Amino acid sequence: MTQLSPALGRSAVRLAAPAWFQKYGVYTAVLVLLAFNAAFTEHFLTVANLRTQLVQVAPVVIVALGMALVIGTEGVDLSVGSTMALATALLPLYLGYGLIPALLVALVAGVVVGAVNGTLVAVVGLQPIVATLALFVGGRGLALVMADGQLKQIVNPDLLALGSGEVLGVPVVVLTAGVLALAVAGLVHRTTFGRQLVAVGGNRAAAGLAGLPVKRVLIGVYVLCGVLAALAGVLATARLTASDPSALGNLMELSAITAVVVGGTPLTGGSVRVLGTVTGALLMQLLRATLVKHDLPDSTAQIAQAAIILVAVYVARERRSR
Amino acid sequence: MAPPEAAVAAPHPDADGAAPPTVLEAVGVGKRFAGVVALDDVSLTLRRGEIHALVGENGAGKSTLIKVLTGVHRPDTGELRLGGQPVSFARPHEAQQAGVSTIYQEVNLVPMMSVARNIFLGREPKNRLRLIDFPRMHREAAELLAGFGVTADVRRPLNTLGVGTQQMVALARAVSVRARVVVMDEPTSALEPREVETLFRVIEELHSRDIAILYVSHRMDELYRICDRVTVLRDGRLVHTGPLAELDRMQLVSMMLGREVAEVRRHGVTGFGAEHDAAREPVLTAENLSRRHLLDEVSLELRPGEVLGLGGLLGSGRTETAKALVGALPLDSGTVSVAGRPLRRPSPAAAIRAGVSLLSEDRKAEGIVPGLSVRENIVLAAMPRLSRAGVVSRKQQDRIVEVFMKRLRIKAAGPEQKVEELSGGNQQKVLLARWLCLEPKVLLLDEPTRGIDVGAKAEVQALIDELAQEGLAVLLISSDVEELVEGADRLVVLRGGAVAGELAGDLVSEPELLDMLAAHTPEPAAETPHTAPHTDKEQE
Amino acid sequence: MKSLTTPRPLSAALRSTTASPSPATGQERITSLLQRHGALAVLVAVVLVSSLVFPSFGTLDNAQNIAVQASFIAVVALGMTLVIITGGIDLSVGSVFALGGVLAAWASQYGLWAALLLPLAVCGAIGTLNGLLIARAGMAPFIVTLATLLGARGLLLALTHEGATTYLVPRGSAFAELGQGTVGGFGYPVLIALVLFAAGGVALQRTSFGQSLFAVGGSSDAATLMGLPVARTRILVYLLSGLLAGFAGALNAARLSSGVTILGVGMELDAIAAVVIGGTLLTGGAGSVSGTLWGVLLLAVIQNLINQIGSLNSSYQSVVSGGFLIVVVVAQRYLARARRT
Predict the structure, then answer these.
(1) How many domains does chain A have?
(2) Is A241 within a domain?
(3) Is residue A5 part of a domain?
(4) Are C20 and B165 in contact (CB under 8 A)?
(5) Boundaries of domain holding A259
(6) Cα separation, B458 vs B478, whole angstroms
(7) Contact residues on chain C for B106, CB-CB shorter than 8 A
(8) Which one of A205, A315, B490, B509 is at 20 to 30 Å from A292 when CA atoms are compared?
(9) What's the mean pLDDT in A197-209?
């Protein structure tokens, strides 16, 4: 590190604290929370409780994984909640043909939403917020139209098994989220697509001049995000044993963005932190659970959540500004 | 306001005798950024009613000096004096209120707002109800512009007007705040010849009102036509200040570039070796590349095994030519062929596939991906070739990265260090490695040694030599005359977006190049050097 | 993206020359008209056609109905317009709207002024917090207002014992009258909204503050170099947005006679949609409050129409709004491109 100029070295020291905080803050926070609960909360560190927490957080994790990819390209996807609603509305319509066809239809809906978003961003050149706002507004309406605005009970045993089944004692939902997290981590770190994604987010002009397929990468990212949201919609439906397009995935975009941001992925793109995102979702889940267990109301949880987001972004800003 | 005079007055011969009083002055100003010296003990005196040229190549410190004078930066050492009194501007606003206005190279107005609103932004005329009086505002704006000989619909959004008119609007705003000093940072760089004429009329108008003008430009013709005195900066230091008429163009250019004309014969400071044996058949041919206002019928050929230098002062179209060659600048017309085959649907990706790579000038904005490691920055373009079924092969990457880090002597803690933590020279080597690992046929290097330390510079120069010897076709763009002359086998010189001439063999020398750089733009209204007065018959 | 590799200074074509102001060409005028008044044209067309097709649509009763329903979101969208013109965004308005309603309903037991001032104070404070974090701490508007969206909703839940308590506005109080009274058949909220839009229009077009909003949104660097108070303008605009959202919430509570806690979810995005449909550029620097008014009315008319067509599911409304939004922003994008080349 001899080539570092003294000024750079100094600023590195000055910024070390927030940088460290941004990198490991979320893990520390989860550990602190767990330690606090181990000491002060009864029946918290039990298998049953942890299992409940994991089952509850799984859909958020899946959506947040897609969101992390989008944010890695300096974008954002507001339409994930509506995509979940579309998936849940489509499921009962096609369950008659069996689980697999219905699942495929739901996932194709995610692909379509993602392709529209991606095209608006990459080809038309809209800001990601606007591009995905349209399907945020229209997507849920479409879902309600398709479902006739009604809640439908799910009776298909295969689908229900997705929600309540277990493999080796691990709920299928949790297992799926875990596998997807590994897959996304692999995608980001080990594949051409993943590295190109990060490069496009880090410096789009340089990526273009280096001959990277910028548009294709952007569209691909939004499609992936759409598919993950659709899958989360399917799993959430299975767990609820009902298809409720008016409620499923409400405010999901906020939870997902929160998980990503708290997990240390900068909103300015150029980096995707998969483990951080998973931990960010867990942190929010545990925080809420802790407050609930201590008879603190939901409102406090929301205010705490708001404060955590602001701190996370403030810290990230410190590091970014030069 | 008086209508513009048809004739432009001669420069004031105010070198001695009763010099007009000083308006604005910088005394021993020094400024550092993150430890790097941008200005070192620079002084500048602006007298009332003079047009003062500020010249220097890139990195000479011109823009820093301007920013100090106009309140964007505060000097670390030295002071500013306005009318003899020490002043300190905390913000651009304070400088403006003190009578120091600036117009910038890229028009710094709000494009979507109307002309009149731009001129009066922040000090709109109000009616009795304290609401903006638009009729009055439009009237005054139109009068103000008419005073400069510009008639434009002041209600139109600024961005529907030509750049020249926009520049006039910026000037009108700058002057209407009762400016005593107007700083113009390359005001003509985006103007058409006719617009330049209008600008000059306005400058004359200001001149006649005794407003001092600091005029920054690279265009010799303009400087000699309108400026009285000149200050030359180089590497953050003051090189010369005095009446412009005492210098001829050759002397001025050599001062800017730091080359004594007589000393030019001196040899071997650069890392370049002998000349190369170039093949006959060109590997890259560009024919009549044109793009409105940027490139005008630029043609050139590049043969394997040669280093072709592309010379020209700033804004002559060097970077644009390089970008056009790799399809990064959309062209109005013209073709680029590689090995005889024209590139259809040009894009960087297509150029890379054809074996043409561009090391771009702006390392930060268009080169490195700051958050990624040295390894990833090197393999960025080659990634598809180093992966199987979309999965990157670390083994292959590591092998290539090791080869190039060794060959280019990239100094980093390791291949996994973030590229943003490296020095400029090492970042540049990383980018060179990015292109070299594609094994290109043609390598376009846009200012490859700018902003890197002396050691790395010599290394990069030696590398260019070596690559040409290995049979690569290299295009070298550089503002460093020495580098260009010693590195290139052949030189193409650009001026105003067009090819001004070509030098080959023994003619590749500093005097020849300086001559060509200093020559006049062949324009219908060409004047002889040093005689600024001219008649402007254009009356619209 | 092409634009990334194109040098900037010359992107504006030199269509007109220095000394000859070419009058706006016909095509130019049409694109500019479409951009500014497209929403109004569509609104007029929709209203005309629907009046002919549905006899129950073109009645005064129905018009009054639409007007009242649109008035609350209109006030929220007014603040959003100002924010978006500066190139920002305010996602917190939905929560702030609901919070304003709850605060007003609770305070209405202490009289009209308490019912108005308390929500304004609290919501103004939230807006100021947004503004400070964005303008002074340099954080992204999107994420800051996302956090205050959650925070305001949390505050609301805390005030209402997790939504279990609904505060009622005393029957017949002056505050209730403010929401429910009418003049010439139109409710006070409609008149208030119109007055606010008129004031907003004047402030935007005829004051220095309004001009600085356009300047900050058009080019904040240029605004700084021109000596405008950029940070102060930003803070002020988020303050205004908070105030307007809180006030709209209070009005709504007066109309409903209670502070309904579940209102306002997703309202921020409806407001943004109305603003964008009204021709205000999300990238900042251009827009108008009248356009927003047309955008709001257009969305309200569509909702009303879908209710008129009894066989249609009311969910079609958001489908149509979403479709409209895409068409409008894509059209804006291409119009802007067409104007530049």
Answers:
(1) 1
(2) yes
(3) no
(4) no
(5) 14-320
(6) 14
(7) 8-9
(8) A315
(9) 92
Out of A132-146, B153-167, C302-316, least confident range: C302-316
Q: What type of residue sits at position B29?
A: V
Q: Measured between beta carbons, which residues in chain A are less than 8 angstroms from residue B426?
A: 3
- Chain C hits for A301, CB-CB cut-off 8 Å, are 154
Q: Is B374 on the interface with A (CB under 8 A)?
A: no
Where do the structural domains in chain C lie, given as residue ranges? 42-340
Mean pLDDT score, B284-308: 90
Nearest CA in chain C to A81: C266
| A16 Cβ under 8 Å from any chain B Cβ | no
Confidence (pLDDT) at B530: 37
pLDDT of residue A130: 82
Q: In chain B, pLDDT over 70 holds for what percent of residues?
A: 86
Q: A61-75, B454-468, C61-75, C180-194: which range is least confident on average?
A: B454-468
Q: How far apart are CA C328 and CA C192, in angstroms?
A: 28
Is 3.40.50.300 the CATH number for B263-355+440-533?
Answer: yes
CATH code at A244?
1.10.3470
**Nearest residue in B to C85, CA atom:** B112
From the candidates C3, C18, C206, which should be mutated to test the interface with B, based on the most B CB atoms within 10 A?
A: C18
Tell me if C276 sits within 8 A of C295, measured CB to CB. yes
Whether B263-355+440-533 and B23-247 are alike in CATH topology: the answer is yes
Which residues from A are below 8 Å from B372, CB to CB?
198-199, 202, 270
- How far apart, in Å, are the Cα atoms of C21 and each of B150, B301, B478, C16? 9, 42, 40, 6
Pairing verdict, β B473-477 and B307-311: parallel
Q: Which residue of chain C is at minimal alpha-carbon distance from A218?
A: C1
Nearest to B210 by CA among B198, B223, B192, B228: B228
- Whole-angstrom distance between the N-terminal and C-terminal Cα of chain B? 18
Nearest CA in chain C to B127: C206
Those of residues 196-225 in A touching chain B at CB distance below 8 A are 196, 198-199, 202-203, 205-213
Average pLDDT over residues B105-113: 81
Residue B411: what pLDDT?
85
Q: Between 3.30.420, 2.40.160, 1.10.3470, 1.10.10, what CATH number should domain C42-340 receive?
A: 1.10.3470
Q: By the CB < 8 Å criterion, does A123 face chain B?
A: no
Q: Which CATH class is domain B23-247?
A: alpha beta
Phi, psi (degrees; rounded to nearest 5) at B75: -65, 145
Give the tens place of pLDDT for each residue, B114-155.
Answer: 999 999 988 889 988 889 999 999 999 999 888 777 788 899
Domain ranges of chain B: 23-247, 263-355+440-533
For C14, the closest of B113, B149, B162 (CB atoms) is: B162
Do residue C206 and residue B132 have CB atoms under 8 angstroms apart?
yes
Residue C101 has pLDDT above 70, yes or no: yes
